Amino acid sequence: MPAYTKNMMRRAGAIAIAALLAASPTALYAPPALATAGPPSVADLSAQLIDAVVNISTSQTVVADNKDGGDDNDGDTPPTPMPKLPPGSPFEDFFNQFFNKDGKGAPARPHKTEALGSGFVIDSSGIIVTNNHVIDDADDIEVNFNDGSKLKAKLLGRDKKVDVAVLKVDPPRPLKAVKFADSDKVRVGDWAMAIGNPFGLTSTVTLGIISARNRDINSGPYDNYLQTDAAINKGNSGGPLFNMDGDVIGINTAIISPTGGSIGLGFSVPAATVAPVIEQLRQFGETRRGWLGVKIQSVTDDIAESLGMDHAQGALIAGVDDKGPAKPAGLEPGDVIVKFDGHEIKEMRDLPRIVADTPVDKQVEVVILRKGKSLTKQVMVGRLDEGDTAIKTSTGDPAVPEKPKTAKALGLEMSGLTKELRDKFKLGEDAKGVLITNVDDGSTADDKQVKPGDLILQVGQQQVDSPSDVTKRLDELKKSGTKQALLLLSNQQGELRFVALALN
To answer: How far from 339 is each of 174, 186, 445, CA to CA, in Å?
Structure first.
């Protein structure tokens, strides 16, 4: 092509671009179209799913034990005095009934209370899922379907820790069922639809988005809720939260509300959390969770600095159960678990959930940080029982001097152990370590809830047995340039925790 032709084409192209920019400065950059109005309708989707969502009605017989003036089963409610009424008052019968008395002062008869919740069918043969708190302590469970039919249900199994229960009904024909989705793929901003029975209003559909993931609302050891602004109210508990494919991404379980109604803060247990639990309940009638046998705590910035870590991450082992799987695997207090069975442990609360979901008797790799070095340990996962939550301290019979030496450092007054001090602070004969007898008001130790009666077991991940051991170790840390001293403490109940105190 001749050179003048190329120049003319370049010039024509430049003129065209200039004209385009003059007409529309954004013409060369067209941002991706954003869906601002949401789905045009969820009518077809909700029509497909609504028959799989049920209303669950429970009844419970409340025995008036009258041991404490209350109307309950446990006998621990503080008594409420009956108001004094003038003789012949028209309110006498009302207050007699209200305050658990008949006209002669005898205990009122047992009566039934009822509760409502939601649930959904996961197997057309009659398997239904709901929250444990919906059916907790129920004598009778009745499932009400969208077509008006009702069936009695029996409890196959339940798990309080993730608040889920599995029910079984015997339907005359196959039921409409829904399936779980992979909730790990759910993103903040995705559309979500809740179907349930708020305030007893059956077959109510609400729409919103996923507002947040991995929410911890301190309701249990495995909190990682999906947060949604789809309206969830009382009675929605146990109902499903759907994605736009019609699959269940969570079980609606809790709300935060100062008014009792929805304010746009609803929480659902993710399908990834409940699905394996539900399968175990169906098979065994109980859960079979993995167990590591450690007590853990968060790695704060101060603790990370004292351990020589670049940033705070992982779960810090504060104690190891003598009978747990971690002990023979070589895990120790002071180790920081940063990976478990291939899963990154970004923060402390990640570990309990991942361990619990791990099959019992599975051999897994655990990556730890110990004194600045990365180590890999092999652990055979055990089975969690209700009694396996406590971390036991080591036992022994340390020599107790009659007149213990004392020392003071970091705002702490410390002493060796004597019989008198054991009695004063209610410490057992097997308690070991350096006793903290006083904490200076306003000190860093005071701010971090260090208390008189706590025992110092380690300083800088080295065992200490006397106040002089503590001061010597603190001097070593200062000379090495360490800014934070990491103390392993045991309280009067034997519970362990790490505390980082500034050395300056």
So the answer is: 44, 23, 31
pTM: 0.64
How far apart are alpha carbons 135 and 353 in whole angstroms? 24
pLDDT tens sequence across 186-242: 999 999 999 999 988 888 999 999 999 989 887 778 888 999 999 999 899 999 999
Domain with CATH 2.30.42.10 in the chain: 290-389, 406-502
Identify whether the C-beta of residue 201 lies closer than 8 Å to the C-beta of residue 209. Answer: no
Structure tokens at 366: 């655990």
Looking at 133, 229, 302, 350, which residue is catalytic?
Answer: 133
Catalytic entry in 71, 159, 163, 350 = 163
406-502: what CATH class? Answer: mainly beta
The enclosing H or E element of 470 equals: helix 467-479
Helix, coil or strand: residue 274: helix
The boundaries of every CATH 2.40.10.10 domain in the chain are 183-284
Asked about 237 being catalytic, the answer comes back as yes
Consecutive 10-residue averages of pLDDT for the chain (504 residues): 48 50 47 58 94 91 52 42 52 52 52 80 96 90 94 94 94 96 95 92 93 86 91 93 96 84 90 93 90 92 88 92 92 94 91 91 94 92 64 33 74 89 84 91 90 92 89 89 89 86 86
Residue owning tokens 């302590």 = 137
Residues sharing a CB contact under 8 Å with residue 32, sequence separation 6 or more, in sequence order: none
How far is residue 94's CA from residue 79's CA, in Å, rounded to a whole number?
18
CATH class of the structural domain 290-389 = mainly beta
| Catalytic site residue from 46, 57, 183, 237 | 237
CATH 2.40.10.10 is the classification of domain 183-284 = yes
| Nearest in space to 392 (alpha carbons), one of 338, 435, 431 | 431
170 is catalytic: no
Tokens standing for 84? 């004094």
